[in-house]
Every structure is written in structure tokens, then in C-alpha cells.
User: Fold these one by one.
Assistant:
Number 1:
Amino acid sequence: MVGKAGEEYHLLDIEDVLAFQAEREIVWIVTARQRYMATQPLHQIDGRLRGSAFQRVHRNALVNVNHVRKMTPLTSQRWMLTLSNGQEIVVSKRQASGVREMLQW
């Protein structure tokens, strides 16, 4: 995975990526230490990572389930995921059942 920080491009190990988050046209690659700007849109990243440890949790977020540390119910159909770096991401109603199934140990 390639991420951009300032004027530099970094090759990132996909296992070190906690999540991908879109903010309008910008997609951020979130790692434990910092975040990088992605060079591809979220839907392309999602397509490339199908069948991996990454799960779509919201229309603007993909999460590496290996870095999920806590699931907190917000309502009967919405969840808050806490990642290994402490970041929290809301799971949409549409994605809630798939996320629950994938995270069952």
C-alpha cells in the first residue's frame, strides 16, 4: 500500500494499517503512529482488499479487524469500534450485522 505524507510516498505493510477513512475526496490510511493520504479512492481500496482482514464498517471506513480491541453498542443496530491505537469508528446500521459476524471469535 502506498501512502503520502507531505511530499514523500511511503510503502506501507498492509498488516500495519488499522483503517482507511474517507473525508470527502481524501482517503486517509491510519497506522498506529500516523496517518497517510491514500493514492486511490476508498472503493478501489475496498475492491483490492476483499477477502482480507479488512471489513467495510461504514460508507466512509474500512477497518482491519485484527486491530479492533473493543465493540460498544450505541443502539440496537449501531456499534462503536475501538482500534488498537484508541481511535473510535462508528459502524453504520447497514454494515452492523456483517461486522458482528466477522468479529465473533
Note: Residues 53 and 64 are 5 Å apart (CA to CA).
Number 2:
Amino acid sequence: VLSKFEDMGFKIETTKDTITIVQAKEIKPVHITTSEYPGFPTDMQAQFMAVATCANGTSIIDEKLFENRFMHVSELIRMGANISLNGTVATIIGTPNKLTGTDVMATDLRASSALIIAALVSNSTTTVHRIYHLDRGYEKLENKFNNIKANIVRKNDK
């Protein structure tokens, strides 16, 4: 995962107790193929796809482990992402500063976190519905993001 961040232009700083990812001047496209450990984890595929929508160029994600792991794609497309699917391969044509906030629906834990990432870089308000998926894997996520100057508000879904 860290090497893919580096491939995308992020700088990684590690200590015994921390990992810091330093913002890239320009996000570069990446090619990811999911596989079993020690390969790229399928559990990070959706989040990297959200980041790839901001890359300057075309990224490819080949999902080798789970055939139904692209459920977040339609929601990212609703936000303006340029993503096409061909079987197990997603092609993401990244365009920095293109995503637009809208109402989106979380379908699982990984998709939920990808939608949060996309919302953070969108140019307007995004509402993520069915956030109970997030709560299965992340405790008080909105507080953590707000601590780093994000503006996330949790509301009750009706």
C-alpha cells in the first residue's frame, strides 16, 4: 500500500510508531492488481480508486480476488468520476479537482470510506447515506477527520 502511495507521488515518512503520508504536488496515475498477502489488499482497492479519480492521467485497477468489489463505482461516477469497467478491470481517467458533491449511497465498509475520500476532495457538499457501514469498521470517523480540518457532520438518516 505504501509503495503505491509513493508511485502516486506521495512522500512516506515513517518512524517506529508512525506513518505520515505527505501530500503529493501532483497525483500520478497508478496500476493496481489486487492479490493475496503480501500483494495489494483488495480491502484498499476502493479507497485507492477514489484517490485515482484525482490523478493526472489514467489508472488501472484489476480486482483479482472478489468479482463484486466494484459496487462503489456507480456512486463515484455520480460525483463526476470517469470510470469504466470491463470485467474485473476498472479504468479511471483521473481529473484533478473534478468531483462534485451529491447524494451517494454507501454499499459496504470499503465503498463507504472511498465515498468519504471522494467527498473530501469534491467541490461541494456530499451526503453519504447508509453510513452504518462505516461504523462497522471506523470508530468516530467524523471526529478524526474533523481533527485534521475536514468539515464532516453526522446526521440521522431518515
Note: The mean pLDDT is 93.
